[in-house]
Amino acid sequence: MFNSPSEITTPLHNGSSHLTLPLALSLKGVSVRTRTGSEILSNIDWDVLQGATAVVIGPSGSGKTRLVRLLNRLDEASSGSIEIFGLDIRQWNPRQLRRKVVYVAQTPYLSQSTVLENLEIICKLGVITKSLFERNLEEALEIAGFQKTLLGHSVNTLSGGEKQRLSVARALLLSPEVLVLDEPTSSLDGLGAQSFLQRLNHWRQKSNSTLIVISHRFADLSVLGGQLLMLNSGKAVLKGETLTILNSVEGEQVRKLLSVSSMSCPDTGAIPLDPEQLIFAGGFLIANIVAIHLLELGLERDITLGGFRATVQLLMVGYFLRWVFLTRKVAVVMLAFGIMLSVAVWTATRRVKRKLPGLLYKSAVSIVMGSGVTTVMVTAFVIGTDPWWDPRYFLPLAGMIVGNAMNAAALVSERMVSEIVSRQGEIEALLSLSATPRQAVAPALRAALRSSMIPSINGMMTVGLVSLPGMMTGQMLGGADPSVAARYQLMIVFVLAGATSAVAVSLSILLYHSFFTSAWQLRTELLASE
Questions:
Q1: Mind listing the pLDDT tens digit for each residue in 249-271?
Q2: Could you give the CA distance from residue 228 to residue 213 in angstroms, rounded to a whole number?
Q3: Where exactly are the structural domains of the chain?
Q4: What is 7-260's CATH superfamily?
Q5: Which SS3 state, helix, strand or coil, does residue 146 take?
Q6: Is the pTM of this model over 0.85?
């Protein structure tokens, strides 16, 4: 699978001969820039030997975490090359890469369940088999220093240090060839940290794996040994063997740096309404405007504009639909339906604050397929109108279905963004455990779908109790028997529930891809605050 590994020639400690060793990773001219061009990392060259330990240090904001996140492609370099075991990182399948290079974040993600369930997630993701999990569990817990007696406990009962060790144990169960730990001793005391790092070093030597650690503790350096990389303002300012540096004049510089870092976080039967009657009804709006003015709420302009727009829009729609009904041509009905769908798609995407790639197209597909197909099926098979596009039935039903589909699309889009933002650590932790994007985003997807479906469920719970629904009211005002109107409304309740669910599910499935790159990286630029 691998190309011939890259090699490095390093002098033996006595300086008299040379030993050729393979590289676990090699970075050449690696830079990371923001969208505005600011450099987070600048021209980093870094080689780490297979089976070695490498420690990354630097002040807060120096780019340490960003650097190690490049190693399993949770983040992408703007320029330069990265090789893992001699193969360009972009040639690796993301799942295979993340089986080789396992990253544990400083604040690990753990689900609100038991310790054992948090460990078993790698089996559910299909990363390792259950038998291999059971065979290696005890050793992984021992290396991480985690008590086996806590397996049945809730993670909520664990201390910060126990949570970190649990996450390390989970990573060890993957048998990584490169284990990357971001501040693994930040919640441990001095003796606990020393013992923990010694066990990790022993595991590294036994497995010939590579260990990369970000640390802010000076004491950790002497325990870990290996190679040292110091970053400052995104640049590599110091590289070499850790113990050699600590025993040189540069050792004091490192000590001061870490000391500072450790402190930083026709007739229908309806009663016609004359213009005079509408003007009389408008008196209620005028009274509302007067009351708002007297209370000095400052909303007079808004409510006046709202009333004006409602009047113009509804009258225009009424006369347009009258023309459609009289014309009674399928092309005209479909034109009206197309306008509804277009406005719904535009409105749904406009409500989403963050500009997601492909949102307009994906919303259009979901809304058109979900509401369009549903409307046709209802008129053709449920009501059985002849023709199926009879505008007197098709367009009112389409309006209700498309309107609810629009709301569902907007809600699921917003909730997906919100859930992914709040669960970013969880998602990237799952990606680091070799989860696919779909597996990693599944909890956020479910939460977003639940939120988008709750209004529909609540509507079914209270329909007819709090107020009479719009369609039922309209039919009764038009002279329909209340029992007939109730059956029509019940049909609408069922149809709307199905249509909104279809739109929400299809859009969430289409949309979650927008949050990931082709290399299975979370597109964090989409999650930044507006």
A1: 888 778 777 765 554 444 444 55
A2: 10
A3: 7-260, 273-327, 328-526
A4: P-loop containing nucleotide triphosphate hydrolases (3.40.50.300)
A5: coil
A6: no
